[in-house]
Amino acid sequence: MLDLENRSIMYLPGVGPQKADILKKDAHIVSFGDMLYYFPYKYVDRSRFYKVCEVDGNMAFIQMKGKILYFDVVGEGRKKRLVGKFSDGTGVIDLVWFKGLSYVLDKIYPGKEYIVFGKPTEFGGTYNIAHPDIDPVELADKVANGLIPYYNTSERMKKAFLNSRAIQNIQYTILNTIQWKLPETLPDYLLQQIKMMSFPEAIKNIHFPESLEKLNQAQLRLKFDELFYIQLHLIQVGNYRRFKLKGIPFPVVGDYFNTFYKEYLPFELTSAQKRVVREIRSDLGSGRQMNRLIQGDVGSGKTLVALLSMLLALDNHCQACMMAPTEILATQHYATISKFLKEMNVQIALLTGSTKRKDREKILPAIANGHIQIVIGTHALIEDTVSFSSLGLAVIDEQHRFGVEQRSRLWTKGHIVPHVMIMTATPIPRTLAMTLYGDLDVSVIDELPPGRKPIQTVHRYDNRSAELYDFLKKEIQKGHQIYVVYPLIEGNERLDYKNLEDGFKIFKEVFSEYTVCMVHGKMKPADKEAEMRKFVSGKAQILVSTTVIEVGVDVPNASVMVIQSAERFGLSQLHQLRGRVGRGAEQSYCILVSSYKLSNETRKRLEIMVGTNNGFEIAEADLRMRGHGDLEGTLQSGDGLDLKIADLGSDGQILQYARDMAEIILNKDPDLLSETNGILNERLKILFSKKTNWGLIS
Ligand code: ADP
Ligand code: MG
Question: Is the pTM of this model over 0.90?
């Protein structure tokens, strides 16, 4: 056994404790395995030498072979720089250094032949290369040989001489130490079927590409590897739940469900809602534990689906709970559900962080003895003090995702594992859903309740506010209400709060004959509630806020969403915000206000918003534009989705292929017990035992 995961890089020649420490802190590299999985983020082709006379201003990094004719120090003080006149006989180009002048003068000799590598830029009609890499031609084999990998390095790493090239050297040392022998990670039969490069060759070529073609093959193989094992793991976990874990059987559709459905349901369910309720009913009746993700765009009516499911739990003598990510949202759910059920005899409680001690002392025992049937709350629900008498269904409304850990804690709330239903309003592109929720069954509510008019979205520049105010006044005169949202972005809070306060003042002035209220995250919960209530009750016509309303309230009378500094929001966040309006029968509007100066990407984002109301299209576009790493509202810290090479935005096909392969294998050999599949079991253990088990979502 090579045991790559347990051999520390600290003892490698050229590393040592200090560098090892920095590598650990800045790049999470501890073991041989970690280092070999630290892949370059780009490659530069150094297979070709350019001539000085070929240089133009549009080139990427290039290399040339030639001599420095002479050095010249020009400028004074901060403008002081060293210029080396470099020539290969076809022309002369300036090499420029602003720092380390004496080092260069000491090491680089005019008249000697060098390889120079850098990016040419144009300045005052001539070309120059600032801070080029310079190597003596004798080292050509080493430095100018084909594709050169570039590794991410932090400032601290660079200072400790751990630059990109040093990382590549360490890769070389490791591979030499293990004599370039790496274990294959896939069974033979699979490798033959997928016809990809072997694992050892892929690792070698990812760090030391022999050719562009080999590099492409290596990347494909490693992406497949990564995605395949995630899928194998998720499908296994999912199967385990589906087939091995006993769920509380809910065989009965009884009075609670039927009475509500027949007598109190205020409208007909959409056919999508009906379909999803059927899917849930069949899960709950199966005797297996349900783990279902309900995806539906904002306003698609998930709450009602959750309520019907909770009533099924009650029909089968179980309790149900619903966990929301914020207090406002929990309170709103509580109000909505209490209203739906007001004619029925159902005991409902609200439990949040700000539930008073006196109330808490009444509620907790009533949950424990089963008197309270439905509990709605925030993560206060998963505190140790909360214990259920018979929790049968946990609904998790995660417009923003709960951490894996938080979710799993609901498991322990009953003697048996409750059924779990996760509702998400962030439309998740298929590739991402497959990876994040690959172990769950998925239902999609892909239809909005009838009578909704599509929201009209427009983009306006912030220097035309007079027109905006006129428009808003007309809407208010029709009896409608208006949201005005300001960004609040980490690292910029002080300024953001100032903008919010300034904005509030302006709106109060311009709309002095109306009531304007304000909500933001720094307010005391009681004040926040009070301001919010003004808007919900219709007393205030305009609500100025930070994004706290994003996950919030349902005010059907609100017809306009104004998003200030829209250029600073991500696509899915803009879409979430827009979803706050358009809930009534009236025409609604979303107005994206931005400054005049926009980057191409930002302009594109706003165009997408103006162009479509479809949450899934937006999520796909978001994923494509930003990569999965920071797909906001979907991925937050703690998700543990730490992909080293695959990119969910562009590797959808590889992902699908990897999932298909994993499915075929697990269909034949569910526990991977056959001899040929032993290697899969081994690898799963290495990959998924040490990390938090994020596959075990609920
Ligand atoms: P979501 O949580 O999916 O964003 P909600 O559950 O808050 O959406 O529903 C949005 C609004 O639509 C609510 O006012 C709700 O009462 C209403 N609604 C839900 N289902 C229907 C339906 N089938 N017909 C008409 N209105 C509905
Ligand atoms: Mg909702």
Answer: no
